[in-house]
Design goal:
The complex is a heterodimer of chains A (97) and B (315). Chain A is α+β, with helices and mostly antiparallel strands and 97 residues long. Chain A has one domain: Alpha-Beta Plaits, CATH 3.30.70. Chain A has two helices and six strands; from the N terminus they run E-H-E-E-E-E-H-E. In chain A, a hairpin with a 2-residue loop joins strand 3 and strand 4. Chain B is mainly alpha-helical and 315 residues long. Chain B has one domain: Na+/H+ antiporter like fold, CATH 1.20.1530. Chain B has 15 helices and no strands. The longest helix of chain B has 31 residues. The radius of gyration of chain B is 18 Å and the shape is globular. Classes of the chains: A alpha+beta (97), B mainly alpha (315).
């Protein structure tokens, strides 16, 4: 069964607000890992406090993914280091997502 | 006067960072060190608070809150002199400089132990109070009464940040348990304080070194501000210490707090409340310039001046 995997890589300081927003828009779960790398906003290291990045992964149906993506684009793209991408994934238990 | 060894650890970190040596403390280790420092400073303050009359303490804490607001406003006024700096950036940097750095405070405490000067231990309670007012003022200066995400979400981020929770928690634990109750954990929190501080400063040196490159990007005004503002903050802190009747040791601590700039509580809060402000600007100023300045030059300098002029210095 097809679902979408939405991956967001952004500033760790946004974590709490992202979790609340993602759930509010219909996601049933999420996975967060610490991340570091380099992009248009320079090197983002996870060593110091909340200066690092997180990678948030959400498996959900495409309408939820779209809602989350639109909300992020409107609220956070301008001022925060954030990238976001969507993939199609196969899941075994569609009712879970 | 010999150099305190903890300063040498800071220099080691700074040097290793500048040379791009293969040295990096894991994030979890830095996290643990800062938790230990915050709790130990909090508990020391809490133990001492039980010996101070509550009415006197409340007056002093109120005075210190005013001091935080004044320092933030002075910093904002100074920053607005620059044409290149927008209002949001000025407000965000001002919040950092009105707020305080616990790391710098810990170095001043170690310095006092090194030169064998006593101080009012309850000054630790001032640290908690000083963290918050300037952050609130910075938000209002940048956005009026409308921070991003609303005050309710923001209150959680300001008051439930790591530094406020651990300092306040430490104060309460110290107050409730008292010196006798804390005896069992004193080897970790009090006896090992300088060792923990040394490791913490090693990491701070590494972090400051990675930020150094950014100074060139941000221009001379920020560099100048980050060197001048600590001196102004120090004068404000010393003035409040004088009015509050602190001893020489207490005065050095309050002076150092006035001179210091936040790099934990303020960056997190400003990033959320004033997202349009450039976080690199304020963090470079406070972490790469002001913190090393205070640790290497500021604290000994403030001490020498205070020692010469302080009313009770002769005793």
């Amino acid at each position: 069964m097809q679902r979408k995997l939405l991956t967001i890589i952004t500033e760790a300081s946004l974590e709490r607000r992202l979790i609340a927003g993602i759930k509010q828009r219909g996601a049933h779960g999420y996975t967060i890992t610490e991340a570091y790398g380099e992009g248009s906003r320079g090197v983002r290291e996870s060593g110091f406090e909340k200066a690092g990045n997180i990678r948030v992964e959400v498996v959900c149906d495409s309408s939820v993914a779209e809602r989350i993506a639109n909300w992020l684009r409107e609220h956070y793209y301008r001022d925060y280091a954030m990238i976001l991408f969507l993939q199609d994934v196969e899941v075994m238990r569609p009712e879970k997502f | 006067m010999t150099l305190d060894p903890v300063i040498l650890f800071f220099l080691l970190g700074l040097g290793a960072g500048i040379l791009k040596a293969d040295l990096r403390l894991p994030a979890a280790v830095y996290e643990l060190l800062s938790v230990l420092l915050l709790l130990s400073i909090g508990m020391k303050g809490g133990m001492a608070m039980s010996g101070v009359p509550a009415s006197e303490l409340v007056v002093q804490l109120a005075a210190v809150a005013v001091m935080g607001a004044v320092t933030g406003l002075v910093a904002f006024g100074l920053l607005r002199l620059s044409r290149g700096l927008g209002r949001s950036d000025a407000a965000s940097i001002a919040a950092h400089y009105g707020s305080v750095s616990v790391g710098t405070y810990a170095v001043a405490v170690a310095f006092l132990a090194h030169v064998d000067v006593s101080f009012e231990e309850y000054v630790a309670a001032f640290v908690v109070v000083l963290e918050v007012p300037a952050i609130l003022i910075g938000i209002v200066l940048a956005r009026g009464a409308r921070p991003e995400g609303g005050w309710r979400a923001l209150a959680g981020e300001v008051f439930l940040g790591k530094s406020v929770v651990l300092l306040l928690g430490g104060l309460l634990i110290g107050l409730i348990a008292g010196p006798v109750g804390l005896e069992g954990i004193s080897p970790l929190f009090f006896d090992a304080f300088k060792g923990i501080l040394a490791l913490f400063l090693l990491e701070m040196g590494l972090v400051a070194a990675t930020q150094l490159g950014a100074i060139r990007r941000h221009g001379l005004f920020v560099l100048g501000f980050a060197l001048v503002m600590p001196l102004i903050g120090a004068v404000i802190g010393a003035g409040f210490a004088l009015v509050m009747g602190l001893s020489l040791g207490g005065a050095l601590l309050l002076t150092t707090l006035g001179a210091s700039a936040s790099y934990i509580a303020a960056p997190a809060a400003m990033r959320m409340a004033v997202p349009e402000a450039n976080p690199g600007l304020s963090l470079t100023a406070s972490l790469a310039i002001t913190f090393p300045f205070n640790v290497l030059v500021g604290i000994p300098l403030y001490f020498r001046i205070l020692q010469a002029v302080w009313p009770t210095a002769g005793g």
